[in-house]
Write a structure and sequence with these properties.
The protein is mainly alpha-helical. The chain is built from 18 helices and no strands.
Length: 406
């Protein structure tokens, strides 16, 4: 691999006149940069190979899904746009949130964070079609913004080739089909990726604003907030600035605002925790995770294929985190993925969606992207082809054969 492909991109000065296009190599930035539109075009040109590769991977998965669904005489639209979590979000967009806690298990929609259903409701007013089609369109558009952000982080740290490979690996995750479903993972990953990129390039207030939005999108938004807040607080060691302090305070504001609002709505300080208990989603320090790992790997002689995939994903994520720490990834990335892993593995909730919960943890894939960047073209092609085809198969199996939510 040429040395220029692996050279980290230097962060631009925080106060560079005219700003800079995200994801564009430092050599193309500067005080004489043209207007915002030109900067965005330059950024898109830089990210174009990654975005085209991302589209190719996801279209391959969609094609396999359509062919498999046709053979089973099964509709594709409902499973992508209106089932499982998508149905919950559409219900919130249509009817709002519950006003009482209740006693029924797995039935209180206050467990679902508000940004995505609010966007669905707002955009549906301005566009034709159903709210389900609007939600799916938002998810797909968000997935491209997420892919762009993933590429921006990888390219900034290790060069354009690694950025493209990181994007392809993220697209080809076993549960990658969720990126094009009416779920929040794509929106959350887009916010997380650009927040992390903003931290890496010294834009703390932008990072904090995106972290606040991530905190309104998913419970794991606290992982983005932690990454940004830690970076902001550590920057204070170099000298006090109001900007850094404001970023540290703003980053968790979205998550805290929603959790606080749920408490006020239910009239109890632990309202959100009470809702999570009704969803069997309490913190147990990983006891349930260990029990299910042991069950799938040792006790069940014929485990369900989807559960095997989830188990392998969890174990691979732990191994990749160790490699990431060994590679001395920037602290914001390690904090983000570390807190994300802690939440997912330490939860006592349902086991089967946990591979999906880790979907936004794209920095975990950096060690693999770096290895592929240094490998021979033949090895790289074989690995990526296997990953893409495996993702296509797992995605179709996940929504057509597996009987529960992804």
């Amino acid at each position: 691999m040429p040395s220029t492909d692996s050279r980290p991109t230097s962060a631009p000065p925080h106060s560079a006149p005219g700003g800079s296009a995200p994801g564009v190599p430092a050599a193309r930035r500067g005080p004489g940069a043209p207007g915002l539109l030109t900067a965005v075009r330059a950024a898109l040109r830089h990210a174009a190979p990654a975005l085209l590769a991302y589209a190719a991977v996801r279209l391959t998965g969609l094609a396999v899904l359509v062919l498999w669904a046709h053979r089973r005489h099964h509709g594709v639209w409902p499973v992508l746009a209106a089932q499982w979590d998508a149905d919950w979000y559409l219900g919130i967009a249509d009817h709002g949130y519950a006003r009482h806690l209740g006693t029924a298990f797995d039935a209180n929609n206050l467990a679902f964070f508000p940004l995505y259903p609010v966007l669905v409701k707002a955009v549906a007013v301005l566009t034709p079609g159903s709210r389900a089609s609007t939600g799916l369109a938002i998810a797909v558009m968000s997935s491209f913004l997420a892919a762009w952000g993933v590429h921006a982080v990888g390219s900034h740290l290790h060069g354009r080739r690694v950025g493209v490979l990181l994007t392809v690996l993220w697209a080809a995750l076993p549960v990658g089909l969720v990126q094009w479903m009416g779920y929040t993972e794509s929106l959350f990953t887009a916010l997380a990726a650009w927040a992390l990129y903003a931290v890496l390039t010294g834009r703390l207030l932008w990072a904090a604003s995106l972290a606040a939005l991530a905190g309104l999108t998913r419970p794991t938004g606290v992982a983005v907030a932690a990454a940004v807040a830690v970076a902001a607080l550590l920057s204070l060691r170099r000298g006090f600035t109001v900007r850094a302090l404001a970023a540290a305070v703003l980053a968790p504001a979205g998550w805290l605002a929603y959790v606080g609002w749920v408490g006020l709505r239910l009239g109890r300080w632990d309202g959100y925790l009470a809702v999570q208990r009704l969803w069997h989603n309490e913190w147990d320090g990983g006891a349930e995770t260990v029990r299910r790992l042991r069950e799938v790997l040792a006790q069940n002689s014929s485990p369900e294929l989807f559960l095997v995939m989830v188990t392998v994903t969890l174990l691979a994520a732990v191994a990749l985190y160790a490699l990431s720490a060994g590679d001395r990834q920037p602290l914001p990335l390690l904090v983000f993925t570390g807190v994300l892993l802690l939440i997912v593995l330490g939860s006592g909730g349902v086991y089967f969606p946990r591979a999906r919960f880790l979907l936004p943890g794209f920095p975990l894939l950096l060690p693999a992207a770096l290895h592929l960047a240094r490998a021979s073209r033949r090895f790289r092609t074989l690995c990526l082809t296997a990953a893409v085809l495996g993702s296509a198969y797992c995605g179709a199996y996940m929504v057509l054969v597996w009987p529960s939510a992804p």
